[in-house]
């Protein structure tokens, strides 16, 4: 059990560090090749920050633990709302701007699409292709909208005009080597913990793995809240949730069939949808999420985790 916890912790750390290396290397390589900053932000950075979840999900499916991949995505989306939006609100109000309404509607539509596909009982090849087609539409719309906005080089995470070629190659190599290794360690440790604790890999994915892979979003949202940049915080969450459902599970479903547990159809999918809808009043009114609401979101998340472990999955 201790060794498995070390594997999970080590895998998470390796995923976070390797993901950061990959983003920094890819961003600077793309900019050196003359790709516009806006296109880099919409594609390279977005894909790079989703790489850890993508590798974990694919590795889980290949290891025969599809429930871990499914639980990771659904659990991450729940954590992104209740934990990632709740915790920073205890330190500083998180203002949700009405400019994000369109992306919020897209996230809700994405969630409903995924729930409809989940009720077929599996995420197989055709369901995965539907998710990937929806993702292609989302990216196309995002790029069209992004062309109207100018993105400066200094606004991109990881951009460094002074970074030399060998360092760029080193970042890319470390990222490409570290991500699959971290994913393998995390999945192996998580599956063993599930067996020892007598719970399903879905529950481990919904809890330990989901919280771990949501740490980058938590850090980003915390800093955005402290800087009073609520739009950045919200955009980070909405984009992450859309990527998780459409890209991560879309790619994972191509590599193997993922069975959807009956318990997830009864509870977890609706918790994910309900948590997402909690943001609606704040976005529509332009009000900030304050300490009281943040505490309420954290209590709701704690109650959800308690429910998962009590029921055992």
Structural features, described:
It is a single chain. The chain is mainly α and 313 residues long. It has one domain (2-311): A middle domain of Talin 1 (Up-down Bundle), CATH 1.20.1420.30. It is 78% helix and 3% strand. The protein has helices at 2-32, 37-62, 66-82, 86-89, 101-118, 125-146, 165-197, 201-213, 215-226, 230-255, 262-277, 280-285, 291-311, and strands at 94-95, 122-123, 258-259, 288-289. The strands form two sheets. It has a two-stranded antiparallel sheet with strand order 1-4. Strands 2-3 form a two-stranded antiparallel sheet. The two termini are 19 Å apart.
- The CATH topology name reads A middle domain of Talin 1
**What count of helical segments does DSSP give?**
13
Largest sheet: 2 strands, antiparallel
Question: What are the secondary-structure elements, in order, as H or E?
Answer: HHHHEHEHHHHHEHHEH
User: What class do helices, strands and sheet pairing give?
Assistant: mainly alpha
Total separate domains: 1
Total number of beta strands = 4
Text of the CATH class: Mainly Alpha
Named at the architecture level, the CATH assignment is Up-down Bundle
Radius of gyration: 19 Å
First-residue to last-residue Cα separation: 19 Å
Q: Tell me, what's the shape?
A: globular
Give the neighbour order of strands across the main sheet: 1-4
Q: What percent of residues are in strands?
A: under 5%
- Low-pLDDT regions: none
